[in-house]
Amino acid sequence: MPNCSPDLICQLAPQPEHHLKWTAATMLTSGLTNTPLTKTLLIYTIASSIALSIFDIKYLVVIHVSPHFWPYAQFWRALAWQIGFANSTEALFAAMLVYHLRVVERAWGKRKMATFLLTTLPYTTLLPPLLLALLLRPLSLNTLNYLPSGPTASIFALLAQYHATIPYTFRYRVGTTSADVDAETDGSASPDQQENKPPTPSLSLLLSDKSTTYIVASQLALSQFPAMLLPSAVGWIVGVAWRAELLPGLSSVSSGFRVPAWVVGEQERRSGPVGPGAEGERYEDLRRRMEGEVATASGLEGSGQAQRRGTGEDSGLVDRLRGAW
User: Fold this and answer.
1) What b/e readout covers 7-23, taking b as 16+ CB neighbours within 10 angstroms?
2) How far is 284 from 143, CA to CA, in rounded Å?
3) H-helix or E-strand spanning residue 246
4) Disulfide-capable partner of 153 in 100, 124, 140, 227 (CB 3.0 to 4.6 Å)?
5) End-to-end CA distance of the chain
6) Tell me: the pLDDT tens digits for 78-87?
7) For this UniProt entry, which segments traverse the membrane (predicted)?
8) pTM more than 0.85
9) Looking at residue 221, what is its pLDDT?
């Protein structure tokens, strides 16, 4: 139950049982457990920003279409601008956002996470500078000329997967009451006035436990307004297009390119016949990982959780992760 002051109204919405089991496995596990790629991305986000400051090379990763692209023809900047953040504030918000997105790797696994970051990297790297130089700058009469550095587009592409894949644990409504309502509560108004006066509308806002993640993302997207909006929007669009299998040059996630299993420390699994049994084996590792994390978070033994496996309880998760491997 969220903490609320007396002048605020909070209301929790109940969730289905399978919904709560899924969020318990992904949300309640503390720290960076079972998220080696997210941990690496988090360390890289901070370390790259510090390295740019120590070596005083921040000017090499930002992009000014004029003069960097023309007349100087420094097109290599279109490949280097995602190396790191030149601003410590942006690095802080990006690190916080990456930490919030750790649950995506828990849901997907290391192999799919690595495949997603690798296959979307050409789009998140090349599209923002190309759109800025060839479209936005001419349309804005050379007003938009700057592209800030940092892996903002890749992080927002991952944020799109967080939005589509990870459900909320609970929702709550925050509302305010007016002074008239407070006066009626104190008994200062007469009974006739209380009966004749229409109810005063209150301002309410429906939030969820995922709202803090979106607040951090909005802080990052608005950090250098309006320049940072371009990589943020491009990253989100690339993430949505990847999930919908609309990116040119990429096959479907079920039969397309995948990072070799040995790269992420896993063993290659032979693809078997397609059927209900094969689909159950496909999600066996995911179920085992979820049950282990639930046991860690609640103090229960993993063997007791393993006995509760069932196709009926996991059907909601399978439908939610229909594009998983």
Assistant:
1) eeeeeeeebeebbebbb
2) 53
3) none
4) 124
5) 36
6) 999 999 999 9
7) 41-61, 81-101, 113-136
8) no
9) 96
Please count the other Cβ atoms lying within 10 Å of the Cβ belonging to residue 86. 22
Q: Are 200 and 162 in contact (CB under 8 A)?
A: no
Q: What tokens were used for 151?
A: 């892996």
Residue 300 tokens, joined: 């229960």
Q: What is the pLDDT of residues 263-297, one digit of tens each?
A: 888 877 655 554 455 455 556 666 666 666 666 65
Q: Which residues does 44 contact at the CB level (< 8 Å), separation at least 6? A: none
Handedness of CA 104, 255, 128, 141 (dihedral sign): negative
For tokens 């921040």, the residue is 58
Structure tokens at 39: 């941990």
The letter for the amino acid at 271 is S
pLDDT tops 80 at residue 96: yes
Question: Residue 207 in contact with residue 173, Cβ under 8 Å?
Answer: yes
| Contact between residue 163 and residue 194 where contact means Cβ atoms under 8 Å apart | no
- Find residue 207's DSSP bridge partners: 172
